[in-house]
Structures are given as C-alpha cells and as structure tokens.
Amino acid sequence: MNDMLQNTHMSTTDNNNNSEVLLDICANCGKEGTNLNTCNRCKMVKYCNAACKKKHRSKHKKKCDRRVAELHDEALFKPPPTQYGDCPICFLRMPALESGRRYNTCCGKMICSGCIHAPVYDNEGNKMEQTCPFCRTPISSSDEDNIKRVNRRVEAGDAEAISNLGFYYANGDLPKHITKSLELWHQAGELGHASAYHNIGNAYKFGTGLEVDEKKAIHYWELAAIKGSVSARHNLGSVDVLAGNIDRGIKHYMISARGGNNNSLKRIQQMYSDGDTTKEEYTQALESYQAYLDEIKSGQRDKAAAYSDIYKYY
C-alpha cells in the first residue's frame, strides 16, 4: 500500500443523526475504521492490528524516527519552567545560585537569602533569633534533628526533601548508599524535582558508585533541563559543542543564561570571541541574563550578600 495513505482520513455521514464521522485509514492495508491503533512512537499513522504495523515497519521507520526526534527536540527546547519559582515571603523570583536560597526542613519552604537574613519578629514585635522566617519554628540545632525533619517531609511526599535525603546518602551524611540515593532521586524526579534528575545524570557521567554511561547521563540531564535545571541545561550545551553541534549547544546555553547560569553566559562570550557565534546571539544572551538579574535583585538580598558570602545570589 502506498505511503500516501499515511495521515489520511475519510469522512462519512451517520445516517441516524446526519453527523459527520471521521474514519481513519490503516497505513498498511488501507482498511477504514474509527478505532485503529496509533503508532505509539510518532503518533502520525494508524494500523488496524499488530500484523499490519509489523508489515509496514520497514516503510515507516525513517519517517517515524525523524518525527520522534522532532518531538523530542520540541520538548527539550520548549521554554522551561522556573526551577524554584518565587520566594514565598517576598514573592521575587528565586535565585539560580544555591547560595541564594535555603530549604527549611521545618515547613518545607524554599526561602531566598534576603528573607533568610532579614530579622524575624513575633506577634508582639519582639525579635526572634535563629527562627524560620516563614513558620517561625526554631532552626534545627543539630544534623541529627535536621535529618529527622527531612524524614518527616519525605513522609509527606515533599520532592525537595526526598532529593535532599538522596544527597545525604550519596555524600556520606548518612551511611553511604548510592542505590538508595538513586531510588530517592528517581522518586523526587517523578514528582517534578529537576535537580534530582540532574544528580542522577552526574552520577552516570562521573561514575559515582556506578559504571560511567554517557548516554544515560545525557538522558537524565535532558529530563532535568526540561523541568528547569539550568545546570543540566549548561551540561547539555557543553556536550553538543564538544560534539560539533554548535547551533544546538548555543540554544542550550541561551536558555541556561536566561535561567541565571552565569557559566553559560561566559561560554557564549568565549564562543563569540572565537568566532563560533554571532554578535546578535551574544547580545541576546547578555540581555536575557540581565533580565534574570532584574527579576531576582532586591535591596534585602543585596544586604544579605554584603553581610556574608554565604548569601551570595548572583
């Protein structure tokens, strides 16, 4: 059967109610129907049964693979969500740098450095020391207490806590156990936590308790990038540039710079100096990064950064 049958439909009229019924056509045998099976990879063609799908595979494979690659890139380069959203206290965009924010295990809130540094007062106006600025619970007094709080947040299904617990097992804060780390990171990733997938990618890239596997590293970095991880996005840019895929690498760096990754901006600057990218692309990267800075800057965060390098946020 000719490939022209792919993506074709036929309409007929239902005599009972005079409504138009759309009939699908099997890409292999041309059989018409309303309940044919769609190719589960490309979603472009339909078949009346598995036998027809198998017979048509050799004709369809190239087009199917090409469409699958297109769908993959559409998802990969779609503007990603902001990884950490806004601070729940000042409502400004959360900084991309880890030092610009802190996860509080008492209430499960991610809070920006400015609000962490700002004084906290009780209902009578008295200043409260070492207190969560969101829920006013005293800050954990020990690592043991902090881990207990993390476990409570894990039981509540908190993706950030689940990812952090995985890091504790990977980093040795708890008895080192890479299998537990991976299980927890997978769980957090499925709940939408971008950095958890980034951590899995790093484990495969650098062989942290695992056999090095570049393909798996890239796979998990892609999952992380789609969910908003600018660090994973930067890594993908580097992978593509090293492979000679300059245009793809620049696209990754541009998205990462817009998300606040200064290393991506520096990489684009170096590529411009080397003649590997255009002045327009470099200018766009600068403007995108500046737009990010405008969204995250505040006087309170500046005061926190001036007080200590611990609160550096850009």
Description:
The structure is a single chain. This protein is 52% helix and 10% strand. The chain has 314 residues and is mainly α. Among the domains are: 56 residues, no CATH class; 55 residues, no CATH class; 69 residues, Serine Threonine Protein Phosphatase 5, Tetratricopeptide repeat (Alpha Horseshoe), CATH 1.25.40. Strand 2 and strand 3 form a beta hairpin. The chain is globular, with a radius of gyration of 25 Å. The termini are far apart. The relative contact order is 0.09. The N terminus is likely disordered.
Shape summary: globular
Order of helices and strands: EEEEEHEEHEEHHHHHHHHHH
Total count of strands: 9
Q: Biggest sheet, strands in spatial order?
A: 1-2-3
User: If classified by CATH, what would the architecture of one domain be?
Assistant: Alpha Horseshoe
Distance N terminus to C terminus?
60 Å
The unreliable regions are 1-15
Strand content: 5-15%
Biggest sheet descriptor: 3 strands, antiparallel
| Average of the residue pLDDT scores | 91
Assign the CATH topology of one domain: Serine Threonine Protein Phosphatase 5, Tetratricopeptide repeat
Radius of gyration: 25 Å
Question: Which CATH class of one domain?
Answer: Mainly Alpha
Main features:
mainly alpha; Serine Threonine Protein Phosphatase 5, Tetratricopeptide repeat; 52% helix; globular; 9 strands; three-stranded antiparallel β-sheet; two-stranded antiparallel sheet
Draw up the topology in text.
Elements: E1 9-14, E2 19-25, E3 32-33, E4 37-38, E5 46-47, H1 50-76, E6 101-104, E7 109-112, H2 113-117, E8 120-121, E9 127-128, H3 143-155, H4 159-171, H5 178-190, H6 194-206, H7 214-226, H8 230-242, H9 246-258, H10 262-273, H11 279-296, H12 299-307
Antiparallel strand pairs: 1-2, 2-3, 4-5, 6-7, 8-9
Helix pairs in contact: 3-4, 4-5, 5-6, 6-7, 7-8, 8-9, 9-10, 9-11, 10-11
